[in-house]
Design goal:
This protein has 206 residues and is mainly beta. The chain has one helix and 14 strands. The strands form four sheets. Strands 3-4-5-6 form a four-stranded mixed beta sheet, with no helix packed on it. It has a four-stranded antiparallel beta sheet with strand order 7-14-9-10, with no helix packed on it. A four-stranded antiparallel beta sheet has the order 8-13-12-11, with no helix packed on it. Strand 5 and strand 6 form a beta hairpin. The chain starts with a helix and ends with a strand.
Length: 206
């Protein structure tokens, strides 16, 4: 066998051995999104997108995120052809700051944090009316979201003349068949109703 023929066979054997090695080897490729990592001028998604699902925050127009916020936008925000829904909570949460808003599911009304406290959204000129049963020895509380200072209550005992109570104004009445009183409670709570007759009350708060 000539030297050139031997070289040819050696080359063929080397190629076959390399091909077998390549076929048998398994390669694991780890990718990242965005891939490669970096800063992009434009990024589009044609379907659902999920961000910060394991923690952290998402910021738009800012690189200084509020750690208490999952989503933060710096600049004007427009909701087009749709709705914006406030998160629902049963009680006042720690506020992010002045201007924070949420929907109170207990009082069934929107609230805004301003002047250092949670207040009814747009409550400056709002009027709310409520009613209920007046039970002797029971308490008549202000409507949810209001204090006694912003409410007036009218009690109508069964078969008796009505009486009106305000912020710190006690009321009492007497007749041949009725003896009743409406007393503001200490500490700024509601009113205590006492009487020989039960009845009903109407409350107006603003």
């Amino acid at each position: 066998m000539g030297r050139s023929t031997m070289k040819a066979w050696l080359l063929v054997g080397l190629l076959l051995a390399t091909a077998g090695y390549v076929i048998a080897e398994e390669i694991t490729l780890t990718t990242y999104y965005p891939s490669p990592r970096g800063v992009y001028q434009e990024l589009r998604s044609t379907s659902s997108s999920y961000f910060a699902t394991g923690g952290g925050s998402v910021g738009i127009g800012t690189d200084a995120l509020n750690a208490a916020a999952r989503f933060q936008v710096k600049g004007n925000t427009v909701v087009q052809d749709g709705q914006f829904q406030l998160g629902g909570l049963p009680a006042d949460p720690p506020a992010l700051g002045s201007g924070a808003m949420y929907f109170n599911t207990t009082d069934n009304e929107a609230k805004i944090f301003q002047s250092g406290a949670w207040q009814r959204f747009g409550g400056g000129g709002g009027v709310k009316v409520g009613s209920g049963a007046a039970v002797s020895g029971g308490t008549i509380n202000p409507l949810p979201g209001f204090t006694r200072a912003s409410c007036a209550v009218i009690v109508a005992p069964n078969g008796c003349p009505y009486l009106i109570g305000g912020h710190n104004i006690p009321a009492a009445g007497w007749s041949s068949t009725c003896n009743w009183s409406l007393t503001p409670q200490a500490g700024g709570g509601g009113w205590t109703y006492s009487g020989s007759q039960g009845g009903a009350y109407l409350m107006i708060c603003q």
